[in-house]
Design brief:
seven-stranded mixed beta sheet; 16 helices; 34% helix
Amino acid sequence: MRLRFLGAATTVTGSQFLLETDRARVLIDCGMFQGSPHEVERNRVPFSFEPRSLDAVVLTHAHLDHCGLLPMLEKQGFRGAIHLTRATAELAGLVLLDSGKIQVEQAKERRERDERHARRDTRRRATRMGRPGAGAPQLGEAVDEAAAAEQERRGRGRPWPPDDPQEPGFDPEEALRRQPPVAETVIHAPLYDVSDAERTIALFRGHDYEQPFEVAPGVRAVLRDAGHILGSAIVVVDAADEQGPARRIVFSGDLGRPGTPIIRDPTLIREGADHVLVESTYGGREHGPGSVAIDLLAEVVNAVADADGVLLVPSFAIGRTQEVVWALDRLLEAGRIPHVPLYLDSPMASHASDIYRAFPGYYDEETARLLHDGRTPLDYPGATVTRTGAESKAIKRAKRPLMIVASNGMLTGGRVVHHLRDLVGDPHATILFVGYQGEGTLGRHLQDGTRQVRLDGAWHEVRCGVRSIDGFSAHGDESELLDWLRPFAAADRRPRHVFAVHGDPEASAALATGIAQLGLPPYLPRWREAVELD
């Protein structure tokens, strides 16, 4: 029996783990790599297995970095079941349909942009033919083009982006660290379209929490609440070869924070396991108290209101957006902020909120009590939901002050990038980050104080304010992750391996130190490494 780490190893995104026995092949998650242009290129690397050979897939939750490549499996012949919670089935369907639609639209935009650039270049060459030195680029142009090519295509002695991410000696982590502050909202070709997503959704098989089910010959699983977003699951797998005892492998998925609003806390696994995979996104880091995060949010909203400014909150459509709206509604109800108009510029976030409302059984006690009292914790009074591109673009002409919540949360694509283009040079605007910013992403560069950013090929000076609140994170910090691991150290069935995944290298290494201090054996897998599960 072996486990292959095909994503989320030495990086946060691209969750994909292949469990192989002598009777079955089961994939846990099939997510997109997200973040820098280099990371996104890994989505085009062929699968390291034949999709037709898989017996089944088990999905931890509906975020794109966990489910976004499922349609690629279906396109290449996978016809097995995709097991997930019932709420995740609804949310993942929404995510995949939206992803297929956006990819087709972005590829069309790229073709049109390339055609415009080709026509422009043709006109420039024709103009040069009538001047002395015809056909030769002007000195300033040549220097600018050379500098741009050097910045975009080289990283510590290697071509950027790489021609082949699988070439010997290629170091994806080093390439990731070298990414400039860039966001591109167009792509060359879609990975899949809406029809591919629809065929994938037909393979979904929804399950309730705590109800065991058969995944494949010799493989059974149960889904337990991960407290990350609605329907998120810890996957507990019991797998056996033809001969020998069963082994229990626990896949944490993304673990939420205890005390997070709306949904329940992560489930503690007290019966032990033979092998554990644990996320390490916030290894080596601690979140501030939730009350401090609420205080900071109130401070920022009041400052924007006093300045007749604009607050732009980059936020993932599922999970984070609902929590931000929840917090704004509580602050408004308590009289701690004025009623600043709110624009929810993400149709998917609006649909996701509808799905949240359809699963009240997943809520924590506080949210259930608010609903019982007739209140609306998932709504902000008078919020404007923009559903079309024209409505989104019209926001910049709206009367100030105002707030915009738009996806995605790391500024790697989506409508939020268009708002950033309008606001990044405005000293009366504030960009407020409420979640993790992956290494190499535009969001991380802004957090780190970069003064210039490139958006769809054009450079912009950063004159807006940049603030961050980590208390809204949907990921546990190091102490919370170690608290989740602590019952494994006390169990009779103690893990032989605790694999730190879903983290940048430094974060995973930091968490590994804490894992060892619990008396558990940490392991830092590399991308595409295979580990025998003894």
